[in-house]
UniProtKB/TrEMBL annotation:
SMART domains cross-referenced by the UniProt entry: HTH_LUXR
GO terms classed as biological process: regulation of DNA-templated transcription
Domain HTH luxR-type: 301-358
SUPFAM superfamilies recorded: C-terminal effector domain of the bipartite response regulators (SSF46894)
Protein name: LuxR family transcriptional regulator
GO terms assigned for molecular function: DNA binding
Length: 361
């Protein structure tokens, strides 16, 4: 019994860190496995298309780990039979299948038996439109009462604490998302939080407007899609590359004549990932050749006067010096002097260079 109390304390201490920006999943799995009394433990996350997103394991051999990742996840009987079960459901091969049926499955005959797994126990910890996740335990012998035991006493309290911490992490995630959404909306950037296969988990209000604006980007079955197949292939390739190496990728797509969407794809902050693998953050901003540059921003960035910034904005919008003078109710000579001052202050030799610098904002 003292060993049980020590295992329980360690397991609960590990679970308390689920709300950390980067939870120690290996420590959580290790202490949970020791508490349960199993040979190995796993955290498995599938996406909405039943593809393996994340596999974290403790007690697995290299061969066991790689074989599951490469093939056997696709015939995992517990995952298949638990896809529609809500979070909090326990799955137990000893309860769900008789021995003869289990032994006829590829998963048992070619995987479980090979790696000395006689019984699998799995608790579904998340089930939504984006992902399906479970914490599982693998035993070398069958305990017919294992699932009952894990749902009572100290075990029940531990798994209740685990799910409670996950709920708190989800609340923290929502707060973090709202902060990001507010910050980027201020600079007219739309945000989407997506999985590696473009399943949208969250999107900002501005993103909703952009996707409804017939600019080519839409949501189809909660997946971010573009009407142009070439654009879609490039976007998917960028997502895969970002997920692989963590380096941001950017692309531009036409939104209409003289307008485009600029899209940045990067790894999302770990705090925005609920369980296991990292999510991707997509930032979209609309740019128009007809949009008048922000005069206040030009003034601040280039350390010029307000009047000079207004002239620069007019030039960047495609107007000639004469047209800027007319629009500003000023003389052509005054505007020419302001252009000369801009060339000096912004260290440019030609008016076209002024326009190029202004267009960067």
């Amino acid at each position: 019994m003292p060993d049980h109390r020590i295992a329980l304390r360690r397991a609960i201490e590990a679970v308390d860190h689920i709300t950390d920006p980067e939870p120690p999943w290996q420590d959580i799995l290790c202490t949970a496995r020791d508490l349960v009394g199993a040979e190995s433990g796993t955290l498995i996350v599938f996406d909405a298309r039943n593809k393996l997103l994340t596999l974290s394991a403790i007690g697995f051999s290299d061969a066991c780990f790689s074989e599951y990742q490469e093939h056997y996840y696709s015939c995992d009987i517990l995952e298949q039979d638990g896809r529609n079960a809500p979070a909090g459901t326990w799955l137990d091969t000893a309860r769900m299948y008789d021995a003869a049926h289990l032994q006829r499955t590829e998963f048992y005959a070619d995987y479980m038996a090979k790696h000395r797994m006689a019984q699998l126990l799995s608790l579904i910890i998340e089930s939504n439109t984006v992902l399906h996740a479970a914490i599982g335990f693998q035993r070398a012998s069958i305990d017919p009462k294992a699932s009952d035991r894990l749902q009572s006493g100290d075990f029940a309290r531990y798994f209740l604490a685990l799910r409670s911490q996950l709920s708190q992490r989800e609340r923290n995630q929502a707060i973090g998302w709202r902060s990001l959404e507010s910050a980027f909306s201020e600079v007219q950037e739309a945000l989407l939080l997506i999985s590696r296969d473009s399943m949208v988990d969250k999107l900002s209000s501005l993103a909703v407007g952009y996707l409804d604006d017939a600019g080519g980007w839409t949501l189809h079955g909660r997946r971010l899609r573009h009407a142009d197949p070439k654009v879609q292939r490039l976007f998917d390739a960028h997502c895969a590359a970002v997920a692989r190496d963590g380096q941001m990728r950017s692309m531009a797509t036409a939104s209409g004549w003289g307008e485009l969407f600029w899209v940045d794809i990067s790894i999302a902050p770990q705090a925005l990932s609920l369980i296991g693998g990292r999510m991707l953050l997509v930032r979209m901003r609309k740019k128009s050749a007809f949009a008048m540059p922000d005069i206040a921003k030009l003034q601040t960035v280039f350390s010029i006067t307000h009047a000079e910034a207004a002239v620069l904005a007019g030039l960047a919008a495609g107007h000639s010096v004469e047209e800027v003078a007319t629009l500003r109710h000023a003389s052509v000579l005054t505007v020419r002097k302001q252009v000369a001052s801009l060339l000096n202050k912004m260290e440019c030799s030609r008016q076209s260079e002024l326009v190029r610098l202004a267009s960067l904002l």
